[in-house]
């Protein structure tokens, strides 16, 4: 059975460089004999997580649908923007909703526990969103995800991609390929 991996951006902004990076990573993964799906968080709007809301109304249907995708995948890659040295609110909110049990018979953290993940980022500055990857790695590790040790932060995003959304730097392209091969191996 072929392995399946999800690729997503921590941004819902229309012209997000991290969405470009996530789509690029998905294209690279397709060359490795695995099933690949790009997930756009804009297609899964969710209210800000609130346990009272969850108790009153249950989980949003969008959270349930996205959670099913994560449950059926072997792993995922997140291209995460850095907001004030951490992850974006939309990404944190998505992880919070997906981490909840929707059924008493469901194992705890079923869509994260023992899954493989890779994390990358890009930004217009020299650090490429690097500071946001540490809190993302910490969060994912604490909910049972096996995070690939190697990560990549692509600086000067406005110059990093060609007009087809491919990385210009061969070194960065090779680093992405290595990260994806490791993700596939451990997933």
Strand-pairing-aware structural class: alpha/beta
Report mean pLDDT, rounded to a whole number: 97
Report the sheet with the most strands, covering strand number, pairing sense and barrel closure. 6 strands, parallel
Total helix count?
A: 7
Offer a few descriptive terms.
187 residues; 41% helix; globular
Q: Could you explain how this protein is built, in words?
A:
Helices cover 41% and strands 15% of the residues. The chain has helices at 17-29, 51-57, 61-72, 89-98, 130-142, 157-160, 170-186; strands at residues 4-9, 35-39, 75-79, 116-122, 146-147, 152-154. Strands 1, 2, 3, 4, 5 and 6 form a six-stranded parallel β-sheet that branches. Strand 3 (75-79), helix 4 (89-98) and strand 4 (116-122) form a beta-alpha-beta unit. The radius of gyration is 16 Å and the shape is globular.
Summarize the model shown.
The chain is of the alpha/beta class and 187 residues long.
Give the SSE map:
Blueprint: E1 4-9, H1 17-29, E2 35-39, H2 51-57, H3 61-72, E3 75-79, H4 89-98, E4 116-122, H5 130-142, E5 146-147, E6 152-154, H6 157-160, H7 170-186
Parallel strand pairs: 1-2, 1-3, 3-4, 4-5, 4-6
């Amino acid at each position: 059975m072929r392995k399946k991996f999800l690729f997503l951006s921590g941004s819902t902004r229309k012209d997000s460089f991290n969405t470009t990076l996530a789509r690029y990573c998905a294209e690279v993964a397709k060359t490795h004999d695995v099933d690949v799906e790009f997930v756009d968080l804009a297609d899964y709007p969710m209210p800000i997580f609130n346990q009272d809301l969850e108790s009153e109304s249950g989980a949003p249907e969008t959270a349930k649908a996205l959670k099913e995708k994560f449950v059926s995948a072997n792993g995922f890659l997140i291209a995460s923007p850095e907001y004030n040295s951490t992850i974006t609110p939309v990404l944190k909110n998505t992880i919070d909703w997906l981490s909840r049990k929707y059924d008493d018979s469901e194992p705890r953290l079923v869509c994260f526990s023992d899954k493989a993940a890779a994390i990358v980022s890009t930004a217009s500055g020299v650090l490429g969103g690097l500071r946001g990857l540490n809190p993302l790695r910490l969060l994912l590790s604490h909910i049972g995800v096996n995070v690939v040790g190697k990560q990549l932060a692509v600086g000067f995003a406005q110059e990093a991609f060609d007009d087809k959304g491919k990385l210009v730097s061969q070194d960065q392209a090779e680093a992405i390929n290595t990260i994806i091969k490791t993700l596939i191996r451990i997933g």
